[in-house]
Amino acid sequence: IFVGLFTEFLKFKDFNDEDSGVTESYVGDSEGDMINPGILFGKNFSMGKRMHLEVFIGYKYQFIDRTETHFNNGLKSYVSVDERSSGVKLGFNLAYSF
């Protein structure tokens, strides 16, 4: 069994392909940064002398800073959005020791 700390640094860009014309309001593309610190709990399972399977689950807190493009009656504007949320990280790794 193991415990580990981690931090993820992400940049993202979301594309909105909606084409609603010049008379409607809609949110266009957005881009931003995420910083996700967290903690993992996991276990290693031996699969022979040199291989093992590592399974983990963890909690992360997400700090999201995003800039959205808004369209309102054909006019373009930018809106900054700061979000905070929590999430779960789970996964596995297959490892080979040399």
How are the SSEs ordered, and which strands pair?
Elements lengths: L1 E13 L10 E22 L4 E22 L2 E22 L2
Antiparallel strand pairs: 1-2, 2-3, 3-4
Tell me what you see in this structure:
The chain is an all-beta fold. It is 0% helix and 81% strand. It has no helices and 4 strands. The protein has strands at 2-14, 25-46, 51-72, 75-96. The chain has a 4-stranded antiparallel β-sheet with strand order 1-2-3-4, with no helix packed on it. A hairpin with a 2-residue loop joins strand 3 (51-72) and strand 4 (75-96). The chain is elongated and about 65 Å long. 0% of the residues are buried.
Order of helices and strands: EEEE
Gap from first CA to last CA: 22 Å
In what order do the strands lie side by side in the largest sheet?
1-2-3-4
Helix count?
0
Share of helical residues: under 10%
Residue fraction in strands: over 45%
Runs in which pLDDT lies below 50 for 5 or more consecutive residues are: none
Radius of gyration: 21 Å
Which structural class do you get from the secondary structure elements?
Answer: mainly beta
Q: Averaged pLDDT, please?
A: 86
Say how many strands there are. 4
- The shape, in one word, is elongated
Largest sheet geometry: 4 strands, antiparallel
Question: Could you list some keywords that capture this structure?
Answer:
single chain, 98 residues, mainly beta, 0% helix
